[in-house]
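Complex record, two chains
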Amino acid sequence: SQTIHQWPATLVQPVGSPLSLECTVEGTSNPNLYWYRQAAGRGLQLLFYSVGIGQISSEVPQNLSASRPQDRQFILSSKKLLLSDSGFYLCAWSGSGGTSETFWTQYFGPGTRLLVL
Amino acid sequence: GQQLNQSPQSMFIQEGEDVSMNCTSSSIFNTWLWYKQDPGEGPVLLIALYKAGELTSNGRLTAQFGITRKDSFLNISASIPSDVGIYFCAGQRQGAQKLVFGQGTRLTINP
């Protein structure tokens, strides 16, 4: 079965410091990968998605970047954190198979809570 | 911006009551998904719907893909304390390349 991991689970960082959040998926190959941010008590905002190694699409202009160095690894980064980067970051995956069912059904990781002070 | 209208935003019910929530859009959707999120955790997929008119159950949960393909509902029967959380609908709009999410329904249960 497929599993998705995120780390760290919680992170407290000072403003201006760099950021690296990691997401890995097991049990599947060539997944589509997604990064979302969730403000407290709010909905999900799609930040980036990737359909393959080195292929990144950005949804909103921001202080963050994403990379996919390996098939099942997705990294969210920042060179200098802002206070507004605080939030709950979720990674998700979906299948890249030929059916719409596997392509659009996303499965989420446990999330990383980031607090920028 | 958001293309799904999810309602109600919050619900306060007694244990044992049935729950109903829905999502609507002015656009046609090809896929509807329902997730539950517990505090501090990632959303968990409850039910996935892929065909207009489809009615699918998962234990005490039942969801339907609207015939018009512009709405979906989720029902929970005989609520229990562990049903507490935030429920999100999500859908893939026809012609779009990503999911859109509703703003969530926060369910609180009074024992």
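Note: Chain B touches chain A through 23 residues (CB under 8 Å).
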